[in-house]
């Protein structure tokens, strides 16, 4: 029998962000080889003309692959806004070719995107979700929101995944307690609230044995200006965007990850930190409560520098509590978010919806 084949479509794996990180992680699993997965990128970082060209090239490649190579399943990774427009176009092409479609929704603001669309566009969104053979939501909250949009769609929950690492040591050893912010620098991720909270701790003298690193693209210059205005240059590094290989080093050298976002999907940054045994301080928005519980981190309200400062004060100064939460985070990843566990969920789904009901190798 012919070997089973699945076509994945997402942003390029060289782009920045959680979707690209997730795809790179999955490429290292048996799922990729067992199902002979081919990946097509339809988006990349850069100017608008460059992104238009990237989609045009991806569209041609996708159409050719669907018509001539006939994969058993098309697995589309989408966010909101323009990303969904691109993936909806591809979903209907695959549907016309009678190839099963899995629509994997990563967008943190998908429900807002839907509500902002005019009625005809909302009808297309509902139809696209309904006609997909399966729609993957990252958590129960997102599943409920998608089900409200498209009541007849088949929504299933499959979380993001990561490969567990050797956990960092949380024991006091004379080194600074390094705190890491990893994500797009700006209002949505709570960067400026974090710097305000950190300044309060610095002025109290709490962070004399700690250091905060801000790693990510976005409003980097504005963050650097705020650091200077707050007078906390000695305890804060604005590192800018970090390539995947550099992220591994940042995680290895840190003990706490802080991400006080206003809005989120299911951040790969948090999963990667938990997989390295870091203690997590984050906000209970989007899919974050699906990842972090009372045994693996501290959740504080967004836009609340007082609460954020209190949480950071606790985990910076209390070695035992930080160690407890870091160990809990690592265990939680191993049991619920290990990439090998999640990849088996995809394997079962492909066999269910695809044209190859069992592995054909």
Automatic annotation (TrEMBL):
Residues 62-160 form the Glycosyltransferase subfamily 4-like N-terminal domain. It comes from the Bacteria. The keyword Transferase applies. Keywords: Glycosyltransferase, Transferase. Coiled coil: none annotated. GO terms for molecular function: glycosyltransferase activity. PANTHER family: BLL6306 PROTEIN, GLYCOSYLTRANSFERASE. Gene3D superfamilies: Glycogen Phosphorylase B. The keyword Transferase applies. This is Glycosyltransferase family 4 protein.
């Amino acid at each position: 029998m012919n070997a089973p084949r699945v076509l994945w479509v997402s942003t390029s794996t060289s782009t920045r962000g959680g979707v690209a990180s997730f795809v790179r992680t999955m490429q290292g699993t048996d799922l990729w080889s067992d199902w002979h997965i081919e990946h097509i990128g339809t988006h990349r970082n850069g100017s608008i003309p460059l992104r238009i060209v990237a989609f045009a090239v991806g569209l041609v490649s996708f159409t050719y692959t669907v018509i001539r190579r006939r994969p058993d399943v098309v697995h589309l990774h989408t966010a909101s806004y323009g990303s969904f427009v691109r993936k909806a176009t591809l979903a209907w092409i695959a549907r016309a070719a009678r190839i099963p479609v899995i629509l994997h929704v990563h967008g943190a603001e998908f429900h807002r995107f839907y509500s902002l669309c005019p009625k005809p566009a909302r009808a297309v969104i509902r139809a696209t979700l309904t006609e997909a053979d399966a729609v993957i939501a990252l958590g129960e909250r997102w599943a409920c929101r998608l089900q409200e949009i498209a009541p007849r769609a088949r929504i299933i929950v499959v979380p993001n995944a990561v490969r567990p690492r050797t956990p960092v040591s949380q024991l006091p050893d004379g080194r600074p307690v390094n705190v890491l912010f990893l994500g797009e620098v700006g209002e949505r991720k709570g960067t400026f609230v974090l710097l305000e909270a950190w300044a309060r701790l610095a002025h109290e003298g709490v962070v004399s044995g700690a250091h905060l690193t801000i790693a990510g693209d976005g409003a980097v210059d504005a963050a650097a200006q705020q650091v200077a205005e707050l007078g906390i240059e000695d305890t804060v590094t604005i590192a800018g965007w970090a390539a995947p290989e550099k992220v591994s080093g940042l995680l290895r050298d840190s003990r706490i990850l802080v991400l006080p976002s206003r809005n989120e999907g299911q951040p790969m940054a948090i999963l990667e930190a938990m997989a390295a045994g870091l203690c997590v301080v984050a906000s209970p928005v989007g899919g974050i409560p699906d990842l972090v519980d009372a045994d693996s981190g501290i959740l504080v309200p967004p836009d609340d520098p007082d609460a954020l400062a209190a949480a950071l004060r606790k985990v910076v100064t209390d070695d035992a509590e930080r160690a407890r939460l870091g160990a809990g985070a690592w265990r939680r990843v191993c049991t619920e978010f290990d990439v090998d566990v999640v990849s088996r969920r995809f394997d079962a789904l492909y066999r269910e919806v695809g044209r190859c009901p069992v592995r054909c190798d």
